[in-house]
Design brief:
It is built from 21 helices and seven strands. The protein has about 475 residues and is mainly alpha-helical. The model has no long low-confidence stretch (mean pLDDT about 90).
């Protein structure tokens, strides 16, 4: 039998290779047959990594807590445990653990950045800024930290910092993702000076570096979005449940559509209902299941398999199954409307839209590093074309299930439109709904985080006019483009 050190080394290699299940099994067997041995903290830490890799956050938390019983001053464990409490929306506990980690090692960059993001996502911007500045002090060559801080403080990037960033970009050893953030900052600087041509040039470079930073993965997912799911969305064959569907009386609300179309403000409005609705954020549960487990040519989906997967995911997220309602803001779910309704027959969908050419530019100008199709105008337009085809198909098929919310209408008349939104969702509206920006527990992790901390403002029809020429060559290909 392998000794403890060998077990730790072997399972560390398995975890590195993402063989989480085997690593977990070996570690559990070792613990089972090693009752008289004092277990090293790394045994439980590897069990945490194996559980986290399988997205079993409940077990991951349990093993981190076991680590703390062995060493309650381990700053790495404290930081990771805080991450889990943050996902569970236990903000008080998460903050306490992050700060303990920072106290035990005040130059631990990871927890400093996590604290900055934590406070930023909760709208506590001054506290966030303090930790971003600390992070820059420790790691002055990490451009992404400058980028994040610039979102909080629009005056942070001045000409002196632009010169500094240009020098950092010249470094051949700089990571591609960091280069991307650098060019996004240069683009924003040119926008302020109304040098739109140079801004666009920098945006093109920023998006290319962002795509190339995860080129293999991005090419795979881009192929999925362009060539696979648009041909499958209405051709799935369903194998029905053998057991009772426990979700048949659930009433989830799915926010769907395009990024930068008002989805975040809709999520904030709905989550401010009296029921204090649980939100999954952009969990991409259905996309994760369909893209990974149902890629066969027959397009067959076993509903019981999907049902069980979702049940486990919700359990790991500490969802209260008695509430029977939640919000999912995974925008790509417009591809999976049929699948979702087979699991959640009482589900409703909010399709958020805005002026489409404004939406195109808003996507291209934003650093959306996790979405492969957002890095070129060509790919954005092709994705949007598929979106229109698919959403129109489902609106005709399920007109009572999909509510289309126009961002312009919401911003021009927030009370009337929010009441319609609430009525569609069968929720009780109150005046407090429109005061969502005052909530201290409002967690926003998307690019709209800063904007959402203020009153709903009227739509700016002039904001993207300087970029209209970008679309001229595409006008003949897409009849939905509006170049007026």
């Amino acid at each position: 039998m392998l000794n403890q050190l060998d077990i730790i080394k072997k399972t560390s290699i398995l975890i590195e290779k993402k063989n989480f299940f085997m690593a977990e099994k070996i570690l559990k067997d070792f613990i089972k047959y090693s009752k008289n041995i004092k277990l090293d903290i790394k045994v439980f830490y590897n069990l945490y990594l194996a559980s986290d890799g399988q997205k079993n956050f409940k077990n991951a938390k349990k093993y981190l807590e076991k680590c703390l019983k062995i060493n309650d001053k381990n700053y790495i464990v404290l930081n990771n445990l805080a991450n889990i409490y943050f996902k569970e929306k236990n903000f008080h506990k998460a903050e306490k653990l992050y700060l303990q980690s920072f106290e035990f090692k005040n130059d631990y960059l990871l927890v400093i950045v996590n604290l900055a993001i934590f406070y930023q996502n909760l709208g506590r911007l001054e506290e966030s800024k303090k930790f971003y500045l600390k992070a820059i002090e420790i790691s002055p060559e990490r451009i992404s930290i400058f980028f994040n801080l610039s979102r909080i403080d629009k005056n942070f990037i001045d000409e002196e910092k632009i010169k500094y960033l240009k020098n950092l970009i010249k470094n051949e050893k700089q990571e591609l993702s960091e280069m991307s953030y650098g060019y996004f900052l240069l683009a924003e600087n040119e926008r302020k000076k109304k040098n739109y041509k140079l801004e666009i040039k920098y945006l093109q470079k920023a998006n290319k570096y962002s795509f190339d930073s995860k080129k293999k993965t991005n090419n795979q997912t881009l192929n999925y979005w362009k060539n696979i799911i648009p041909k499958k969305y209405n051709k799935f064959n369903y194998i029905p449940h053998n057991e009772k569907n426990i979700f048949e009386n659930f009433k989830p609300i799915f926010i769907i559509g395009l990024p930068r179309s008002g989805s975040t403000v809709v999520e904030a409005l709905i989550s401010s209902a009296n029921k204090n609705i649980f939100t999954l954020g952009e969990a991409s549960i259905f996309n994760g299941i369909i893209a990974k487990d149902f890629s066969d040519e027959k397009n067959t989906i076993e509903l019981e398999f999907v049902h069980n997967k979702i049940s486990k995911i919700l359990e790991n997220m500490s969802f209260d199954f008695n509430s029977k309602i939640f919000i999912d803001k995974s925008l790509e779910n417009f591809f999976y409307v049929d699948v979702i309704l087979n699991i959640f027959p009482k589900a409703k969908f909010i399709n958020t839209v805005r002026n489409i050419d404004d939406n195109i530019f808003a996507i291209f100008k934003q650093s959306l590093s996790k979405i492969s199709w957002t890095h070129s105008i060509d790919d954005i337009l092709e994705y949007i074309d598929n979106y229109f085809i698919i959403i129109n198909y489902f609106i005709k098929k399920n007109p009572d299930k999909i509510f289309t919310m126009h961002l312009e209408e919401l911003t021009n008349n927030p009370e009337e439109i929010s009441k319609k939104l609430y009525s569609f969702c069968n929720l009780e509206w109150s005046n407090e709904v429109l005061n969502f920006h005052t909530r201290k527990d409002l967690l926003i992790s998307t690019a709209s985080n800063i904007q959402i901390r203020d009153n709903i403002k009227k739509y700016d029809n002039e904001k993207y006019k300087p970029y209209k020429n970008l679309l001229k060559s595409f006008y003949k290909n897409y009849d939905w483009l509006d170049l007026k």
